Amino acid sequence: MKPRIEVVGIDCLMLRLFDEIDETHMPWLLAAARRLREVFGGALLDLVPSYTTLLVHYDLSQLVDDQAHQRVTEALHDLQPDTDGQSRELNIPVWYDPSVGPELEALGRRSGLGTAGVIERHSARIYQVFALGFAPGFAFMGLVEECLASPRLQTPRKRVPAGSLGIADRQTAIYPLVSPGGWNLIGRSPTRLFDRQLDGYSIWQPGDRVCFQPVDRVEFLRLGGDDTPYEEAP
């Protein structure tokens, strides 16, 4: 690890800890986030963790640039990875079905696993939440197995239903709201991912671990899922 501090705005610094995405980096990022909150205290306006970086937004009325740099440096002193096991593990039900996951069968053919194999392999892995973004409650998770990795669609869809589970390259995610998107859809979850009553409005945060639990259509509907088949928007 070779930390670098980059200026990205008049009141924002970017702490870059790594250059490559790796699940083993998250304990370091979580530890750095905790230390940054401690040293900045009330001068911290926002802290945004991502795959390899942390964006530090601070209050200019309390700190000048040199002081902010000094606090980031202080946070890095004797930094050790966060191994206290406080990250949460979330189980998310998913109905894997071609009617709501239009790329499921194609991925089964391309990978040679068949539809059942894709479901088994995708749901057998524990995924790390790397970052939140794109839409409220949208979590970028990974890493999916190489055999399931799929490039984004050449032409993004105009309308992806809420709850749709997709794959893009070696990442996987669920669309929390109806929105455009170009990920390969393989199923749908009934879980509400964005809620204004939740702290941070999202059921998950960077560092959480996620398991996808396959359910049948009956259970999906019982949990409040919408089984309307996917149709391309005109």
TrEMBL record:
Domain Carboxyltransferase: 3-204
Alphabetized GO MF terms: 5-oxoprolinase (ATP-hydrolyzing) activity; ATP binding
SMART domains in alphabetical order: AHS1
Assigned keywords, A-Z: ATP-binding, Hydrolase, Nucleotide-binding
EC number per UniProt: 3.5.2.9
Leading EC class: hydrolase
Pfam family, one: CT_C_D
Record SUPFAM superfamilies: Cyclophilin-like, PH0987 N-terminal domain-like
Domain of life: Bacteria
Family matches, as PANTHER family: 5-OXOPROLINASE SUBUNIT B
Record NCBIfam families: 5-oxoprolinase subunit PxpB
This protein's name: 5-oxoprolinase subunit PxpB
The organism's taxonomic lineage, starting at the top: Bacteria, Pseudomonadati, Pseudomonadota, Gammaproteobacteria, Pseudomonadales
